[in-house]
Design a protein that fits this description.
The structure holds two protein chains of two kinds. Helix content of chain A is 35%, strand content 19%. Chain A is built from 23 helices and 20 strands. In chain A, α10 runs parallel beside α23. By secondary structure, chain B is mainly α. Chain B is 67% helix and 2% strand. In chain B, strands 1-2 form a two-stranded antiparallel ribbon. In chain B, α7 runs antiparallel to α8. The model of chain B has no long low-confidence stretch (mean pLDDT 83). The chains are: A alpha/beta, B mainly alpha. Chains A and B meet through α2, α3, α4, α13 and β16 of A and α4, α8 and α9 of B.
Chain lengths: 618, 273
């Protein structure tokens, strides 16, 4: 059988066609060469570099790679949104360079993009799904039938009359999928389609991918989450526009060294297995899911009777990512943030009024690290924006440091100097041309100038691991995704806030950038800065915070130490969340009578506890 | 109310399904009727005509069950501009030959005529904005596209790119609220870094200076958004030269003829009143 998609020796450079008059030898003098993610703006760096691969009909393929490795560029070649500069792409035998074939190609290969709001074209759900079939010129009855079938598949038929912007993010992403399904494609590409979703939303999309694949549809899933990639039957890792690894998940994720070289990591379960290798040399290599890991560890389980249950007072050792000791402040310390009964309605007194939070409470200890978790739309961002006075409390009271924010006379500028907020994907808001100017913007407004300003910028850049001399004169647009995120973080840190608020700080980062960012945040914690973090990634929450507040439908429904909150699998599921991977493995092991310490939430805690159990039995 | 809620003032381009009589009309009726009233309000020379026009528009607002306060809020952002225009008209507007100026100083002549023509500007612009708000609140983009396509079909036979034009309008309408939301995000992020947004402080010059750091990212973000949207539409098989069909059927009923007749009469009366 002929392969469904053939990619033959394809190279592609953004801007190459439009810049045809440009002298080919003038390479980027700004030092932008070799940086990732800047492909769209530095024409000298090819986004794809002589790449070749084949996709067979009915495959379930995961495409992974660091920020800027060419994943999305490759995906856009597969349905003729981009045409190769060199080489060729064949879809079911049709060459994408032939414009006359484009309608037929796009009928075969559909695509779900990362941001749901960029994909809706209509103001009514049903009409949006009809867009694709309408473009095919189908008769009205056929369109109606397809729209209904597609909406029923994704579970949105009851919402057909609503405007898309009234849906949750997870629902909007399913709407985008319905729009693709209504065209009845043979292959669907998901371009980081789960990146904006909460665990429950991600789970729904995964189930849909699997079901569609079982119906014979080819699935190509682009992802930064290695845990997502292990569900595929084939994994392709890209690096600098070429294929670095290609094979079944157990083969690709068996090459830890190579993965780490190209900015990727192991799935959580595999990383734990690798860390246990020294203690358990005969542990099988390919353990990619928590279930597989727990099953493989069963035969090493210490006999339950020979071991006394460990004392409950022994809390799990907290080992931060960088290996240093982390202070766990007492719960009862002085609180720097105290919110009580907060409520907020967006677009109040308009027909679009929407309640975001209601009766929300939050207390954050001075110099503590606090996590806000909850499904998308549960009010995390709204609550965070109250904490530095971007939103005024409409209901309830809010005390931050010495400032009462419910009091209209409070100087909001002073509050914002005390509390810095880093928005989700902050790199989109960079506006200065040079890195140094971008970071200096805040301190300059605060009146700093000359040498003190320079020192402040240097200090902030040090904190996030950007070399002052090396980076201050770099163009902001030529940075990689991870570097841009660091600049955005430094530009807030440059104001020396005592409290740092972070909204989904690791969303959209590749594994290497994520680990590095978490390390910098750890270092920051040790300088005494209070951190409040909202995240969908329970692993990030587990790594970074000591206390957690759970939001559900705008209300604070639970609050407590991280191990207590993340330990309750069933309640987390009710809130649209899930346990971090380490906790899930720990729970499975405890069911096999492993005498692990209670309250395990991070991978390093799990590894340490397993090793300890093994040492005791020897 | 938060100073950052820019969206609050963007009423044009927001579809508000209330299921009213106006919403149930054929989109072509709304577009044609709207166009007639638009022309009448733009062209009527007298205050009496404008007053009548405003009454008609307000009546439609009530019929469409669009909250009046909300609809009027859309006028607020353009208010300084409207008042400025009115002032210019009063100061520099042409006085007619037979009236003597009440006040003269250099090139500035204030006459009864210029006062009256200045006074017509706020109701004229206010009425127009209100009309556009009602039109977009009662017409989903799908209806708008379909209605415009049918209405412009005769022009399309002359070889003009109707589908591209209609698409342009659709995208522009969809973009307005989106841009407001992006501007809000950017302003908030800069306020977090010490800019004077949302503190209720800062003079005009300072506020103008702050606009620049917002405009640069807003421009970049809107380009990104436009590209993403174009890509998503292309991926879903949209071609400007393609033959499209539609899931929604248009049918012109008795109520539509009646509504069209009424707007024709209203427009005529506004023009001659």
């Amino acid at each position: 059988m002929a392969p469904f998609i053939v990619v033959e020796n394809v190279s592609y450079t953004y801007g190459a066609r439009s810049a045809a008059t440009r002298k080919p030898q003038t390479s980027g003098a700004s030092g932008g060469r070799g940086t990732t993610g800047s492909a769209a703006l530095s024409p000298s760096t090819p986004a794809l570099h002589g790449i070749s691969l084949e996709v067979t009909a009915g495959e379930y393929l995961a495409l992974i790679g660091a920020n800027g490795s060419g994943k999305s560029t490759l995906a856009r070649h597969l349905n003729a949104l981009l045409i190769p500069d060199e080489g060729r792409v064949l879809v079911a035998g049709m060459d994408t360079r032939d414009v006359a074939q484009h309608p037929a190609i796009r009928r075969l290969v559909g695509m779900v993009f990362q941001r749901p709001e960029d994909q809706t074209v209509a103001t009514v759900v049903e009409h949006d799904v009809a867009f694709g079939p309408e473009n095919l010129g189908l008769p009205r009855d056929e369109i109606r039938a397809r729209v209904r079938a597609a909406l029923e598949t994704v579970g949105l038929w009851d919402e057909r009359d609503r405007p898309p912007h009234m849906l949750s993010v997870g629902q909007m992403q399913r709407l985008a999928l319905a729009g693709v399904l209504a065209v009845r494609p043979q292959c669907i590409i998901f371009d980081e389609a789960t990146a904006m979703l909460d665990p429950a939303g991600r789970h729904t999309v995964h189930t849909l991918m699997r079901d569609l694949n079982q119906e014979g549809i080819t699935i190509i899933a682009i992802t930064h989450l290695m845990e997502e990639a292990v569900h595929a039957r084939r994994v392709i890792a890209l690096h600098a526009g070429s294929v670095a690894l290609d094979g079944p998940p157990d083969v690709v994720f068996g090459d830890a060294a190579r993965l780490s070289n190209i900015g990727l990591g192991l799935p959580g379960a595999a990383a734990i297995a690798l860390a246990l290798q020294s203690a358990l040399p005969d542990l099988p290599r390919a353990l990619l899911t928590p279930e597989a890991l727990a099953a493989a560890l069963q035969k090493y389980a210490p006999a339950a009777t020979s071991q006394p249950r460990p004392d409950r007072t022994h809390a799990a050792p907290r080992v931060p990512v960088d290996g240093g000791a982390m202070p766990v402040p007492p719960d009862s310390g002085p609180h720097i943030i105290e919110a009580s009964g907060l409520g907020h309605v967006y677009m109040r007194d308009t027909p679009f009024a929407r309640r975001a939070i209601e009766n929300a409470d939050l207390s954050v200890a001075e110099s503590g690290a606090h996590g806000l978790v909850g499904a998308t739309g549960s009010g995390k961002s709204t609550l965070l924006q109250h904490l530095n006075g971007l939103l005024r409390p409409q209901e309830g009271t809010l005390q931050v440091g010495q400032y009462a924010l419910h009091d209209a006379a409070t100087d909001l500028r002073a509050v914002r100097r005390l509390v810095g907020l880093v928005f989700q994907t902050p790199e989109n808001q960079i506006f200065e041309q040079y890195v140094g100017d971008e970071i200096a913007y805040g301190p300059r407004l605060a009146g700093l100038d000359g040498e003190p300003l320079r020192e402040r910028v240097r200090w902030a850049m040090d904190l996030v691991g950007l070399d002052f001399e090396g980076f201050k004169d770099r163009f902001t647009f030529a940075l990689s995704g991870g570097e841009k995120r660091k600049v955005a973080l430094a530009s807030t840190l440059a104001l020396r806030p005592q409290v740092l608020l972070l909204d989904e700080p690791t969303a959209g980062l590749d594994p290497a950038s994520r680990t590095e960012l978490l390390q910098h945040l750890h270092r920051l914690r040790q300088t005494g800065v209070t951190i409040v973090l909202s995240s969908h990634q329970m692993e990030d929450v587990a790594e970074l915070v000591t206390h957690v507040t759970v939001l559900a439908n705008g209300r604070s429904v639970s609050e407590g130490p991280v191990a207590d909150i993340l330990g309750e699998a069933h309640r987390l599921a009710d809130w649209g969340l899930e346990q971090p991977l380490a906790s899930r493995v720990a729970r499975a092991l405890q069911a096999q009578a492993w005498p692990l310490v209670p309250g395990i939430v991070t991978e390093s805690q799990l590894v340490a506890s397993i090793r300890r159990c093994l040492e005791l039995t020897r | 109310m938060s100073e950052f809620e820019f969206q609050r003032f963007v009423t044009i381009g927001q579809y508000l399904p209330t299921g009213s009589v106006v919403h149930r009309l054929d989109p072509r009726t709304r577009l044609l009727g709207g166009l007639l009233l638009l022309l009448a309000i733009t062209l009527t020379p007298r205050l009496s005509g404008l007053a009548l026009g405003l009454i008609v528009v307000l009546t439609i607002t009530v019929l469409a069950r669009v909250p009046l306060g909300y609809a009027l809020r859309g006028v607020v952002p353009s208010l300084p501009f409207i008042l400025f225009l009115a002032l210019l008209q009063v100061l520099l507007g042409p006085g007619s030959a037979e009236t003597t100026p009440l006040f003269s100083w250099g090139p500035i002549h204030i006459s009864v005529t210029s006062l009256i023509s200045g006074a017509t500007i706020p109701p004229r612009f206010g009425g127009l904005i209100l009309l556009l708000t009602i039109l977009s609140a009662s017409t989903s983009t799908t209806e708008m596209v379909l209605g415009l396509e049918r209405l412009l079909r005769p022009v399309g036979r002359l070889g003009l790119p109707i589908q591209d034009f209609v698409l342009m309008i659709q995208v522009a309408l969809r973009f307005l609220p989106l841009l407001a939301r992006e501007a809000e995000r950017i302003a908030k992020s800069q306020a977090s870094r010490g800019a004077e947004w949302g503190t209720g402080r800062g003079g005009l010059l300072r506020r103008t200076r702050q606009a620049l750091p917002i405009l640069v990212p807003l421009f970049l973000v809107s380009l990104q958004r436009a590209e993403a949207l174009a890509m998503a539409m292309e991926a879903r098989g949209y071609r400007s030269d393609g033959r499209r069909t539609s899931m929604v059927a248009l049918n012109f009923r008795r109520g539509d003829y009646l509504a069209l007749l009424l707007s024709l009469i209203a427009s005529a009366v506004i023009l001659v009143a």
